[in-house]
Design goal:
Helices cover 25% and strands 27% of the residues. The chain has 293 residues and is α+β, with helices and mostly antiparallel strands. Helix 5 crosses helix 6.
């Protein structure tokens, strides 16, 4: 009787194994779709901050959904780009010693180390959206290597360690080991991301970086040459002489009206009209830049 029961159970076991196999492959496919970083990086290195630079894709959509701002501070102290005869590969945000620093997106902690002549106490996280984020000069690290984190999880405390002249957070965003301007994706003054997605394009991201710094960086940045009409319009929307830290801008999308923009930005139609010297019946063009604060 026992042998008969086992014999009848065997086909069921094989069917269940087949079902489990299909479910497992489906789960892997879903995770691969949700975690494009698996296709961008060949290795996992806990020893070195900068993973081996791999070939940048011609284009790559980076999801900015389910994010958390690394700090609640809105004060930027240094831009991405040339500084002191070297390349500054992130943004510096004013924080105080002991301020909580949080993971920007869900991911896995790759590096937790100390670098006395550079980052000080720092953390590197590889995220499911393909980015790696760096958090440097902290006074304390709150995570360990290979730890899974969610967006918003505390990963460290603000500090002044390493090569630093005052307490601040040095924040980097990298794709395939290449530093991208965080201002392409993060707006610290508004404590928000720029959109649900950032479409990286190898052919234009450097010019877009210049524009992003102009719109979301520290006051008083000079521009290099800009070719496309859209970028010229963005770059000249607010001359450096009149650009104050409190000034904020909105790029008009197709179909938007003064009323919809005012509602979205938490202001009034009259305020936008006054700031931009517009008449009430003014027609808006897609790509047009408006001051809203």
């Amino acid at each position: 009787m026992g042998q008969d029961l086992l014999a009848r159970q065997a086909p069921i076991d094989r069917r269940m194994k087949a079902v489990d196999s299909v479910a497992l492959h489906r789960l892997i496919e879903i995770e691969s779709y949700d975690s494009p970083s698996a296709d961008l990086y060949d290795d996992w290195d806990n020893m070195h901050a900068h993973s081996r630079v791999t070939e940048l894709p011609d284009s790559f959509r980076i999801s900015l959904k389910d994010f958390c701002m690394p700090t609640t501070s809105r004060v930027l102290t240094s831009n991405f780009g040339p500084r002191w005869h070297r390349q500054h590969k992130g943004l510096d945000i004013k924080v105080y010693i002991g301020d909580t620093i949080r993971a920007a997106f869900a991911g896995k902690v790759r590096v937790v180390r100390y670098e006395g002549r550079g980052y000080g106490k720092y953390v590197v996280i590889r995220h499911d959206n393909g980015l790696e984020t760096y958090y440097a000069h902290m006074s304390k690290q709150l995570v360990v290597e290979d730890q899974e984190v969610r967006a918003g999880d505390p990963i460290g405390l603000g500090g002044n360690t390493g090569r630093s002249t005052g307490s601040h957070l040095h924040f980097e965003t990298r794709l395939c080991g290449v530093a991208l301007n965080p201002a392409l994706m993060f707006d610290f003054r508004n404590q928000d991301v720029v959109d649900d997605y950032y479409m990286f394009r190898k052919s234009s991201y450097q010019k877009e970086s210049v524009v992003a710094t102009r719109l979301r960086g520290v006051n008083g940045v000079s521009f290099g040459s800009i070719d496309s009409d859209d970028e010229v319009e963005l770059a000249t929307a607010a001359p450096a002489a009149s650009y104050a830290q409190e000034t904020r801008f909105h790029k008009v999308k197709r179909g938007e009206t003064l009323y919809s923009i005012a509602r979205y930005r938490g202001t009034t139609v009259q305020a936008i009209m006054k700031l931009n010297h517009l008449k009430k019946n003014a027609k808006l063009k897609a790509g047009q830049i408006l001051k809203f604060n």
